[in-house]
Automatic annotation (TrEMBL), chains A, B:
Top enzyme class: lyase
Catalytic activity: orotidine 5'-phosphate + H(+) = UMP + CO2
Family: Belongs to the OMP decarboxylase family. Type 2 subfamily.
Naturally occurring in which organism (per UniProt): Flavobacterium rivuli WB 3.3-2 = DSM 21788
MF terms in GO: orotidine-5'-phosphate decarboxylase activity
SMART domains referenced in this protein's UniProt entry, alphabetically: OMPdecase (SM00934)
Pathway named in the protein's UniProt entry: Pyrimidine metabolism; UMP biosynthesis via de novo pathway; UMP from orotate: step 2/2
InterPro entries, alphabetized: Aldolase_TIM, OMPdecase_type-2, OMPdeCOase_dom, RibuloseP-bd_barrel
E.C. no: 4.1.1.23
Coiled coil stretches, renumbered: none
Protein name: Orotidine-5'-phosphate decarboxylase
Length: 271, 271
């Protein structure tokens, strides 16, 4: 998928919502636990109920790995289902990987080639040669952590590196890497006031924004400072949508929550 | 396992070698490809041939994930085999994980609890609340990336943060985190001259040292600057040992390579 296609999908659906699939077996409806693959059944129901309201799905790999082999199988089934039934969706492996070159190449193979995700989140700490193997995969995107949504973001990311904050140094440096046109970035919704400065460095890139919903970030604030003339934002919500109800009506309630966010996005886009 | 037990094992075996299990199906002996689980068969043979010469094994998760469900199954079988047959070995999930709190907790569950690894490597970029869920697991260790062995380490890690290099800030800050006694650190062998400064900040912690062997780091240099009075080093070698031969004699040749390293370590320890 190209960013132009992603932009067109955003215009068509009047939505730039990404739905996070963080499936916790202790939180999903009881009746699904009797099925052969509760994680996949849950995801499938959520996807079927929300796909016309969002443009991206973001499975969080930790929540699959936490169930071992079964969980990994559910992850493979989930991405297969998305690629077969909803190929228009932008898919994000929220994996936060990153290692020396030959190892990053293996992660890129696993997620971008074999499982055929459109993108993967990557941590920048190990620098250029840990990220470039992901960037080398054609027609795929590497979503680099810049300024994350959590408290710990203030431990290092906002510290000044040679008088410039680390997250800005990460943004600036990443632009010099090979195939940097395949970069997107993670910036947390809980840090909306930082978007103005960030947009000065990366005016055109798409930004994946976690932290709206359960983590407390404001959609309007993010859009005010972070939106560019091709939208340039994918705003993710996980828990607030997928756990809107823990009853048999979970998919219906998830749709209601997704619809609320989509309506708010439509209003913003119409302005 | 406690660090005291690890130290005792080091004394007994006169070795502080960690063997990295980075299994690439294009590099292992052809005859194994006919078996049901070539990755596990390869690991099992390597482990059986080297376990008396090393104190730790470090499966690199990327190399398992690259083979999807089958690879994940091989990872589970490898750690089960280690825990059952060689419970004295210190096991390291080289996973480079790290995410917001509830997600890191899921990774901790997967690797430290369910799979029962003794430790996991974790990236520090997201700060305190992304690392503490790992540290909270009792009797387990979190091996934090400080200064890695690759070129990209110079992109951010050695940059000055408020006039102190980022990797030193990571080391200093991590000491203030809850259960920081469960921390170990990654410092690349290719950066031996940095060990003196690093030991001033973390004199007592164990350091996992990748980069000896294929990446070119020197064992003697690392020991000269990095060893403390309880050794405090786990020096890892992956490719140089496990791919010593691609023939049917691969396990035997791996033992020969491991023995060379162990002998060099024994000499250093005797001094």
């Amino acid at each position: 998928m190209t960013t132009q296609q992603l932009y067109e999908q955003i215009q068509q659906k009047k939505s730039f919502l990404s739905v996070g699939l963080d499936v916790d077996l202790t939180k999903i409806p009881q009746h699904l636990l009797a099925t052969e693959d509760p994680i996949f059944e849950f995801n499938k129901a959520i996807i079927d109920a929300t796909h016309d309201l969002c443009v991206a799905y973001k499975p969080n790999t930790a929540f699959f790995e936490a169930y071992g082999l079964k969980g990994w199988h559910s992850l493979e089934k989930t991405i297969q289902y998305l690629n077969q039934k909803h190929p228009e969706q932008f898919t994000i492996a929220d994996a936060k990987r990153g290692d020396i070159g030959n190892t990053s190449a293996m992660y890129a193979k696993a997620f971008l080639q074999d499982m055929d995700f459109d993108s993967i989140t990557v941590a920048p700490y190990m620098g250029k040669d840990s990220v470039e193997p992901f960037l080398a995969v054609k027609d795929k995107f590497t979503i680099l952590l810049a300024l994350t949504s959590n408290e710990g973001a203030f431990d290092f990311q906002t510290k000044k590196v040679d008088s410039v904050e680390l997250y800005k140094t990460v943004l600036e440096t990443s632009k010099t890497w090979k195939n940097s046109e395949n970069l997107m970035y993670v910036v947390g919704a809980t840090k909306a006031e930082y978007f103005t400065e960030i947009r000065k460095i990366i005016p055109d890139s798409f930004i994946l924004v976690p932290g709206v919903g359960a983590q407390g970030g404001s959609l309007r604030e993010v859009c005010k400072y972070g939106m560019n003339d091709k939208v340039g934002l994918l705003v993710n919500s996980s828990r607030a949508i997928i756990y809107a109800s823990s009853g048999e009506d979970f998919a219906e309630k998830a749709r209601e929550e997704a619809l609320k966010v989509q309506k708010e996005m439509e209003e913003i886009l119409n302005k």
